[in-house]
Amino acid sequence: MSTPGAGFRAEYACSEGCGFRTSLWEVIYRCPRCGSLLEVSHDLEALRAVPAAEWKRRFESRFGQSRLPHASGVWGKHEWVCPELPAGDIVSLGEGRVPLKPLPRMAKELGLGSLELKECGVSPTGSFKDWGMTVLVSAVKHLRARGVPLRAVACASTGDTSAALSAYCAAAGIPSVVFLPKDKVSLAQLVQPIANGARVLSLDTDFDGCMKLVQQVTEDRGLYLANSMNSLRIEGQKVVAIELCQDLGWEPPDWVVIPGGNLGNASALGKGFQMLHAMGLISRLPRLAVAQAERANPLVRSFRGGFSELEPMKAERTLASAIQIGNPVSFRRAVRMLRAFDGVVEDATESELANAAARADLEGTFTCPHTGVALAAVEKLVARKVIAPGASVAVVSTAHGLKFADFKVGYHRATLADVQSQRANPPLELPAELGAVREALASLG
Ligand SMILES: *Cc1c(COP(=O)(O)O)cnc(C)c1O
Ligand SMILES: [Zn+2]
């Protein structure tokens, strides 16, 4: 199998710019000099030696392939993701290459030029976490092939990271361990790692409590840490930005809106756009909006104080359970991105997020509550004229709604706490009689 990344290089660098650099094949998550997160730093000079038009041609031709791994939306960008990873060590389940779904009616009602959903949850395990996990687990496979003694890979999760980790590890035959907050993930999310054979630890704490424990446990260097503080995941997730621009004929939208919890994904998206810009594939940057649930909104609070220092908060229970995070690990890099993209931050109540999700569903999608948070943020930013009339807006849809069936059922039964269901569409219970059925259909169309 050929490795298109041959000839290009990437390594870890300190994300706060203290100058520390090391090989991607080190087991390391933070800068040993200053404690900051690391980032993957690409040799942009070498990449720039290939003209922008040639990159576009290569990326587009791989969209037409059907064989993994390079038919994967992530590995179709192999050179930009993890160039030195041999193609034979790639662990892919066919992630990426997801639809950009227009919501023309909602766009028209809001007075937008366009509103589109990048459906990142149309993916092997049903969330965008697959985009990053393919890179991390491939790197672990490669590390083990190089003789690094890694027994297993571990993560703390609000549900989707653990599903992705366990599926990719199962595909690679590598043991995985997931730390879940008891009773705070959906049934579908809980059953995925169970089915994929992970060691599932259900802990009587919240996500932040799980995160703390997994960091302590992975100080044992035989256990590899798979949370998004691990910047290998960011390299896969940044491809969302690249694929979005590719979908739009290499013209970014005016705004990109994304739900944020730990804030790794918002940082990844920014990194993708910056790389596209640096490489000359796009000529301007979009503006960025990060959306949080009002009950878990530390970034919103900081933003209102002019990006004041993070004050970790106790995240309250929200329907947007995957972003119920009070102490986001990637806070600093997200703030850096928001500054670079003239970004804004908005939050949504339980009612707002649920109604926004239901509104989009009426155009044929099936949105998760987190995507509902982002859509509610669009509604509010349009109302406040932060997003101008006529703007083109892309929303990153982070998971498939099928993982959150209880949320949907509760919404349409109008039984969700703190939600006024404005678009409830409960089934009509009827006797099995023609007259009753005819009557029920009389008002259709
Ligand atoms: C993980 C996740 C998020 C938040 O991503 P962060 O990188 O933690 O900000 C949003 N939506 C869904 C569905 C997720 O699984
Ligand atoms: Zn440093």
Automatic annotation (TrEMBL):
<feature type="domain" description="Tryptophan synthase beta chain-like PALP">
    <location>
        <begin position="91"/>
        <end position="398"/>
    </location>
</feature>
<dbReference type="GO" id="GO:0009088">
    <property type="term" value="P:threonine biosynthetic process"/>
</dbReference>
<dbReference type="GO" id="GO:0004795">
    <property type="term" value="F:threonine synthase activity"/>
</dbReference>
<comment type="similarity">
    <text>Belongs to the threonine synthase family.</text>
</comment>
<keyword id="KW-0456">Lyase</keyword>
<feature type="modified residue" description="N6-(pyridoxal phosphate)lysine">
    <location>
        <position position="129"/>
    </location>
</feature>
<dbReference type="InterPro" id="IPR001926">
    <property type="entry name" value="TrpB-like_PALP"/>
</dbReference>
<keyword id="KW-0663">Pyridoxal phosphate</keyword>
<dbReference type="Pfam" id="PF00291">
    <property type="entry name" value="PALP"/>
</dbReference>
<protein>
    <recommendedName>
        <fullName>Threonine synthase</fullName>
        <ecNumber>4.2.3.1</ecNumber>
    </recommendedName>
</protein>
<dbReference type="InterPro" id="IPR004450">
    <property type="entry name" value="Thr_synthase-like"/>
</dbReference>
<dbReference type="InterPro" id="IPR050214">
    <property type="entry name" value="Cys_Synth/Cystath_Beta-Synth"/>
</dbReference>
<dbReference type="InterPro" id="IPR036052">
    <property type="entry name" value="TrpB-like_PALP_sf"/>
</dbReference>
